[in-house]
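DM from R.C. (forwarded with permission)

"hey, sorry to bug you on a friday — could you get me a structure for this? deadline for the figure draft is monday and I only need the backbone to look sensible"
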Amino acid sequence: MQRQVHALLIVGFIIASLTLIFVLQNPDYVAINFITWEGETPLALLLVITLASGVIIGLICAIPTLFAKNTQIARQKRENKEIQEQFLEAKTKIESQEKRIKYLESHLNNADFNPTLDS
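My reply, with the result:
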């Protein structure tokens, strides 16, 4: 987990650095027309805003999947806990039965076994 966090930080730093280089190398202004609004903005700023909008839209679209996965994980953890409890209960019963078997075997081996025949 720690390794993944470091890798994500490195990737984020690289992307931020490349974005800064891009912004500094593209100071040209472009005309923007949106519905009735018109204006000019630096090309780099427009592209960074577009990229950020795409990331935000992607995250919003991923939210239902993330909730579904978290719900599924919680359900599986609950089921796992129930199965572990059933396993421990069965293990305890088996150990109890094994002790009983050993007890009975020891009594059978130690007892004087004298069968009597009724005539």
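R.C.: lifesaver. The helical segments are 2-25, 43-110.
me: no worries. The chain has two helices and two strands.
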